[in-house]
């Protein structure tokens, strides 16, 4: 289906190490690049020559590499050619597919969304293939596809379990590859978002970093030493068992007083519906709480205290340099951010360093971008190292 894919793929292990270092930290002089990678000048020249010839790297004016020494023979720094290849990212929700095209530096250059009227795996793959064909018309140098799905994903290829799509053991990567002819990487949507923020976003350059998402579900990602940490409960709803208030509400999803029961959008809507008989959207509930309506105000206050407790607990045990709060539920901070901050302080030592809490107002295109970044990381860096 697609022609003109990035001509620099595949890369050797040595070429990948050079490409990634420049991609994440560039522009870099050859001297600095060799120092970072522990390479001799000759070895670096051997590795960079094909990358320059293929159009992946380019020499840029020395002024574009701040902090570089100007002593001795001038050396033009190397930079990644961001538009030398493009990547597709898809975020699949219960009723929509959100698609983006990104450059090699993860900048979104196009968006395209489609309603999802079926959960049949083959038909969903057909939708993704049709979207790929549409997006390829304006971006012929497509190098790969990343797909983010809420649920448990195995080997970046098979959706082992997705409660939103009611899937089990769906070989999504193969289904989409067969229809598009492009390499495909599938991952849990939160994991993909964490990778994107670690490389190009709020966690760039940090050793200890946490992403916490609230929305239809609750997501958690931990980065140590600049790398995402996988764990046994990953993608399987850890928040259902994280009790933040043993006297909290009992909802259909999650144990009594769990982070999921208190914080997720479906749980908050359920509590209001059970108490009042009225069905309100999440934004309507936040607006009613802000206006002082007693029941919505109480539910939102409990959610804010749960969030503050959760952030404090994470900070106490992980000691991250920053926690990024993201997802479609972050509007809670606009209405009850003060309560969140007060609760964090209540659960922290008085002399503890302030929690570096950053809130990211995002939409599903950010999640799709995360999937594209994961494709960049796996297909350029190599799956063994990603």
Detailed description of the structure:
The structure is a single chain. This protein has 386 residues and is an alpha/beta fold. The chain is 40% helix and 20% strand. It contains 12 helices and 15 strands. It has helices at 13-25, 30-37, 41-53, 121-136, 172-180, 189-200, 259-263, 265-276, 282-290, 294-318, 331-346, 364-381; strands at residues 57-59, 78-80, 86-92, 96-102, 108-115, 142-149, 152-154, 158-162, 167-170, 184-188, 208-214, 218-224, 227-228, 322-326, 357-359. The strands form 4 sheets. It has a 5-stranded mixed sheet. It has a 5-stranded mixed sheet with strand order 13-12-11-14-15, sandwiched between helices. A hairpin with a 4-residue loop joins β8 (158-162) and β9 (167-170). The longest helix is centred in the C-terminal third of the chain and has 25 residues, at 294-318. The radius of gyration is 23 Å and the shape is globular. Residues 66-70 have low confidence and may be disordered. This is NBD/HSP70 family sugar kinase. Keywords: Kinase, Transferase.
**Which stretches are poorly predicted, pLDDT < 50 over at least 5 residues?**
66-70
Strands of the widest sheet, in order across it, are 5-4-3-6-10
Number of helices: 12
Structural class: alpha/beta
Report the biggest beta sheet as strand number plus sense, adding barrel if it closes.
5 strands, mixed
Helix content: 40-55%
- Mean pLDDT over all positions: 88
What are the secondary-structure elements, in order, as H or E?
A: HHHEEEEEHEEEEHEHEEEHHHHEHEH
Give the radius of gyration.
Answer: 23 Å
Distance between the termini: 27 Å
